[in-house]
Amino acid sequence: MWLVARRGKVEDFVWILAIALILIVIVGVFSYFVPYTGPLTNITISTFSPGEVGFVQDYVARNIDLMTFTVGEEQTELLKAWPQMELATSILGGNTERAEIGVPDYRLETARGVRITFDLYQTNNYGNLVIKWNGREVMNQALTPRQHEVFIDRADVRESNTLEAYTTGPGLFFWASSVYIIKNFNVNLEYGPHRVIPFEMLPSEMDRFDRAEVSAYASGTGRLDIKINGVPVYSDYPRGVFKEEFTLFNAPIRAGQNILTFIDESGTYTLRDAALRIYITGDQSTAGHMFNITEENYNFLAQGIFRGKVDYMIDSIAKSGGVEITMNGHRLNTPVPRIGWNSAYFTANVVEAGENHVVFSGTGSFEISEAIIGLER
């Protein structure tokens, strides 16, 4: 009996041992065909503090003196000036002063006419002074030394005009020359009541444009409105020192010519010592960091088991724009930046096993306290 019981226990042990060996073989064969998939948790590769990145400074690129003017009344714009003009004619001939006078279309819209003013300094009165505008005589007479003026109606003012000035011959004094010496010969456009001021923006300035600022000492009645390229950007009743800023978010400023218009429909506003300042951003601040990817982690990335991830904490945004991240010279897709954690992703195509380089920069200005480079399941 004892021998039979003992033999049964031995047989049971043999069967259990055989089953265990079979399971070990099965697991071994299965693990041979199923690859190791790596850790189940995310992997942190490197952390660092980028700090302040992007354009962190701005400065006045252009300070345009608008001088003192009153909105809501007739405006005057100098189109052409001669400090001195000497005209003479004899029986042998004479000289003629000619010029093309352009009137910008943005002022032609509210033009009232052109006024020519000059000081006749000296003449012998042997002939007449002749002034022609677009081929039509607007003056032909003998003048005495004093200030003179000629007004040309709006109907005769075009975008491109021709001005001529000369003297007629000496007449009975054929042996002499008729002479006119003129000072301060000015051609002025009268328009209004809006004050229209053009300003230029270079493409290089637009790439780094931060803001524009209008300042003046304001006094008057009615309401002051300001437009940039025809779009309203300001409407208020300023008194005393007045300063208003415009950015690309509220003003359609563009490369090339821009038009700044001051309007007062119900009164007059005087702006003293007015100025337009253009601010652009200065040097760009970047933050670089070297990090190492092991062969094992790179294989996880290359096999698609993990994806690369850059988490970065934005503490403050001093100037709106985008955060730019480049990894080994390849730019990553980044979201619209917001305060708090932001994320960008990368693949095995932009990194390699071993040393890698990441650079933070931006078109705005950001304070980034922490950046974490890792792998995410």
Q: What can you see in these coordinates?
A:
With 377 residues, this protein is mostly beta strands. It has three domains: 43-57 and 283-376, Galactose-binding domain-like (Jelly Rolls), CATH 2.60.120.260; 58-66 and 204-281, no CATH class; 74-191, Galactose-binding domain-like (Jelly Rolls, Sandwich), CATH 2.60.120. Helix content is 13%, strand content 58%. It is built from four helices and 27 strands. The strands form six sheets. Strands 1, 2, 20, 22, 25 and 27 form a six-stranded antiparallel β-sheet that branches. A five-stranded antiparallel β-sheet has the order 5-4-12-7-10, with no helix packed on it. A hairpin with a 2-residue loop joins strand 23 and strand 24 (330-331). The radius of gyration is 41 Å and the shape is elongated.
